[in-house]
Structure formats: structure tokens, C-alpha cells
Automatic annotation (TrEMBL):
This is Uncharacterized protein. CDD domains: PTP-MTMR8. Residues 126-500 form the Myotubularin phosphatase domain. GO terms for molecular function: phosphatidylinositol-3,5-bisphosphate phosphatase activity; phosphatidylinositol-3-phosphate phosphatase activity. Pfam families: Myotub-related, PH-GRAM_MTMR6-like. Belongs to the protein-tyrosine phosphatase family. Non-receptor class myotubularin subfamily.
Amino acid sequence: MEYIITPKVEQVKLLDRFTSKKPAVGTLYLTATHLIYVESSPEIRNETWILHHHISAIEKLPLTSTGYPLLIHCKNFRVAHFIICRERDCHDVYSSLLRLSQPVVFEELYAFSYNPKQTEMSRGMGWKIIDIEDDFHRMGVPNEYWEQTDVNENYEICNTYSTFLCVPKEASKPVIVGSSKFRSRGRFPVLSYFFKENNAAICRCSQPLSGFSARCMEDEQMLQAISKANPGSPFMYVVDTRPKLNAMANRAAGKGYENEDNYSNIRFQFIGIENIHVMRNSLQKLLEVCELKAPSMSEFLTGLENSGWLRHIKAVMDAGVFLAKAVSEEKASVLVHCSDGWDRTGQVCSLAALLLDSYYRTIKGFMVLIEKEWISMGHKFSQRCGHLEADPKEISPVFTQFIECTWHLMEQFPCAFEFNEKYLLEIHDHVFSCQFGNFIGNCQKERHELKLQEKTYSLWPFLLAKQYPYQNPLYKPSAVNIVLKPNTAPFNFKFWCGMYNRFDKGMQPRQSVVDCLHASMKQKTDFEETVADLNQKLTHQDKSHSDSTFILPMKLSIEEDSTHLQVIGAPQDYLEEEQMMFTNGAEEVIETVSAGSKDVDNVTDSSFKCQSTLNNIDSLELVKLNIHVDEDNHQISQDTIEK
């Protein structure tokens, strides 16, 4: 709070570039963690909350006739344009946000003060929900080819790897240590994914320190051990995700790529994903297009093309598809690296796993994938996401690209993922929010030193506790146990409005398909519960009425599209060969009314009534059927039908 100069500013306008209406007027508050804007509307209380850690840039624009503009750009792609009446207030807000949005040390991050009022035991259990070792057991590791190694138990061999690593059984400790000395940052080859259907594996590492002619016997033995761990294939791929020109340039610095003459039974492949600096500039150009106030079609499409963003997304996707195809179809193991093995390598390995394994396409499985391929393998989240005030050249949207690639897969395979777009956006938001400890730091060793599991909370249990909004209503678990084979032709890649213009209400579709499907599914569930409850009441009806009342059995049948609800066993099913259909996805209320004497010699009348209660229905029919039951002759007749 010591950095907040003015905690409250009144008569602040919030502009919306997509509406011609008068801008909202309200009060701007600054707290220790958020900027909060509350509209001064007597009808409805609209609030805009912006986390300080989400702010990427703040601009003071030239004075206008209405006041002093303050433009706030956020890492989750929100753009807030405020107009503040007084220059002094504008400067105070600007200065406060500049400091609050750029913490200097980790302890200033939101996660260290966030308190959801849980016990220490709950906090500890939350960190144990996702277990990488369990995931390797699920894959069938350890086995006769692969084993867990404790060679990096105290981060001695590689300080950016985790302590849990799997390597080929044939690789001895001297071989592992020797290989680590020949790899950039000591990141020697380790197992990423084991495809137990054919024993093919995906491994990851960093570039070799080969220069123009250097070689390392231990590193060659390490690759040979990986190849032997897949006896069904006579070769293995070594995939360099960099453009070949970049890899060749690294040779001059004593690094580079593997010489096929020195490594037996390998096939070398360049992919061509650009480096972090190219990606950062590409995203900046994309955001400039997104922030155009009223672009023409030509301006938008030209700007999108010039940004090169979708070309980069396609390159990452192509690499993931190559790995998945090599493993599943060619039955070959693959070793993947880029320069240091924590950016492009993570993108490619995690995408390949998504394609190969349906478990990672579930809500919890996706958490495991992120934990395994990104967090534990040393992706530098704090540097790439700009958590602290540091070198801006280290910031790059590497993880954002992975999230977008996942979204493109969901667009091509809408029934293959348990989660929806909201789930991806929620995770993406929390990577930058620093509200939870999962993404703080640049490697596991750093997180261990910060004691994050003791001082912060894990994101995963919070997401698992409220899964419903993130569920994909089209998900079919029985049909997803296949390897996904996406089409990476250019026309399959499109601009993700839900990510980059999410907060621009004027650009969003008037109806959300997912929201409509969720509403339909809820109506279906409510209807099932209503019918089940009524059936139970009918079953337990007082036996004294059984001699005078004829109870018609009812059951519920709901068609696949969830828009037609059908009652089977209603009176009309006994009288005529017709169905009573309820359209418009309406909730149905079924009432059965019995009347008549308890005397068995008398005729009992039963009225069966079905009524829809959905609001705003264009046409609504109310059907009432009067049924006469002649118990002496065991006959049922229909007296009247009223509509």
C-alpha cells in the first residue's frame, strides 16, 4: 500500500472503442493487488477489476478536451482507456501503477499475500494433487527399457531440470554425466513421453556443444541407449526445432547440432520455429492490429498477415504433428531440442503428447501435461512472462502459443477435449496473475528455494473444485482414445478472437455456442431429476389409492441433440401411436392428478397434464388429456383432448 499515492479518484471515464454511447463515468480505486473501476450507475453496479500483475504497459496520452487519458495494456490482452479529470490525479495513478505492476523481488508477488483461508494441511494437499511420477506410471514407466534416475537429486547435474527424471536403463551414471557436460546448460536427454503401444519414446534435451567438429563419446552412447530402448525401430529421429540457418550460426559459438556421421542410426530433421525475439515482435504486431479502432477488412487482413503470427502457430503445430506421426505410425523414437531446450522444445513435446494421448485432453490431464513439460522441465515462466522488473528482451509468448495451438486442435476436434475455451483462458490468465505459486520462478530449484509450497497455494485444486464452467458439453470419452491427426493446411488456422479481443464486448458473438450447450445440458439434467422425483412419488403412493386409481408408468427419453424431450408411457401412448414432443429445449413439468371414488365399482378419471415453463417461448401448447378407466372391463378410453 505504500506505493499508492491516491487510492481513490472520482469522475473517471472509461471509454469503449466499439460503441457510440457516452462513456461510462465512475470511481477508480487502487488497492494493494487490483485496480478497480466502479461505474456510477443507479441501475446496475458494473465493476472492472484489473490485477496489477496483469498490466504490461501504461501510457499517458496527450491532453484532450474531456481530460487526461490513461491507457493500460494488459498481458491477458485487455486494453483499458481511462479519462481522468485532473492532471495531478492522472499522474498519481500512473506513478502508482508503474510501481505496483513491476515488482522487484518475488516476495512482492500476489501469491505471497493471497490467503483463501485454507488450513496448512489443505495447502499441502493441494500441491500433491498433480504428481508427475504417477503419470509416468500410467505410461508404463519404469519398465524393461526405462527407469527413474536420482542422478539429479540435488540439482547437481542440471539446475534447470527437476529431480524426477527418467532415462534409458542402458545409460549408466558416467554416460549421463558425460552427456550433460556436452549439452547446453547441462540439459542431457531425458524421457518426455513413452508410447507403450509400440515402445517408441519422445525425449528432450538442449543443443550439443559440438561446434564444427567436437564430439562426445558419452553423448553418442546416450543416444544409442535411447535407440536401443525401442527395439522395434532400426533408427531414431533427432529433431532440431530451430531454422537451420540459426542452428548453423550457433556452431560458430561452439554449439550447434548433431553430426550424423558421429551418431549411428539417427535421422536428423530441422523444423524451423523462430526464436523468442521473433515471436515477441510478431505478437506485438498482432496486438496493434487488434487495437485498431475501426479497421477495414483490408487493413485487418493485411495487418494479420504482416504480423506472421499464424505462420508461427502453424510451424509449432507442424512440429507436434511430425513427432506424433513418427511415434505412432513410423514407430520411431524421437529426440527433440532447440537451443536450451526450455522454449520450443516444450511447445513441441507437449503438443505431440496431446495428439498421442487422450488423457492429456482431460481437465486434470492437461494440468499434468503443463506440470510435466513446462514447470518441471524449466520453462522460464517468470522471465518469459515478465513477472518481475527485468530485461524486456527475455519476455516472449512461448506458452501463449502452446495454449493457442491447443485451441486450434479443439476447433478441429470438438468432441476430443473434456475442457473448453474458458479453461484455456483461465490457465493463461493465471500464468500472468501470480495469484498462485505454480508459475512463479524459472525452474524447480528456484521454486524450492522460494519455498512456494509452504508460502503460496497451487492453482490446480482451485480449478478442479469448479470444473463445470470449463467442461466441454460435446466431449465424448468413449470416442477419444485415438491419435489425433490434425490438418495443418493454412486455411485451418484462424484468428482467435476469444483470446485477443476477449474484453472488447462489441466484437464478441451475440451468443456463445458453449454457453447455449451448457444451458441445454442443464435443462436436460433438471428434467431428468424432475421425472425421477415424480416417478418415485408415484411408486410410493399410498396403497389405499391403488384400488381406485390406475397409475400409468412413465419414463424419460431424451434425444441426443438435447432439444427434444419425450415422455414415454403417457396416456397417449396407450391410446394412439403418436408421440408427444416438447421443442425449444424447454423445461417440462409433469403433473398427474387423480380423482374419483375409492369404490372399485366406480370409474376413476385421471388427468395427465404436461406443461412447459420456459420463458420467452414463441409458441407454447398446453395439452390436457382426460382418461377414463373402466376397471371392470379393463379398458381405457380417451374422453377429450383440450389444447
